Amino acid sequence: MRVFRVVSLLEATSFLLLLVSSVVKRTHEFELGVTVLGPIHGVLFLAYVGLAFLARPQTRWTNGRMVLGLIAAVLPVAPYFVERRWLRPVEGGRPAAQEV
């Protein structure tokens, strides 16, 4: 679970940085940021999706929660929400907010 939480945060951060780099590329014709961050974000995105499936038994996510968790991977800040609300442990070692 700790790895999934870290990847969730890294994926969201890399997505935001990639968006900023895309704007810089278009406005200042500086492509290095996109060239470097694109593949990094791609690997983190695939890791997030894979870990979502691997962590499903531990998170006890319903089908609806799983779909929302996967949709979160394509929204710029949604993985921050997933990490904060659905993956962070609470009393008893279970993730917070199990309902969908």
TrEMBL record:
GO cellular-component terms in the record? plasma membrane
- Determine if Membrane is one of this entry's keywords: yes
Residue ranges annotated for the DUF3817 domain, each copy included: 2-87
Keyword Transmembrane helix: yes or no? yes
* Membrane topology, record value: Multi-pass membrane protein
Kindly list the residue ranges recorded as spanning the membrane. 32-54
Compartments annotated for it: namely:
Cell membrane
Which key words tag this protein in UniProt? Answer: Cell membrane, Membrane, Transmembrane, Transmembrane helix
- What PANTHER family has UniProt attached to this entry? MEMBRANE PROTEIN, MEMBRANE PROTEIN-RELATED
Protein's recorded name: Integral membrane protein
Say which species the protein is native to: Thermomonospora cellulosilytica
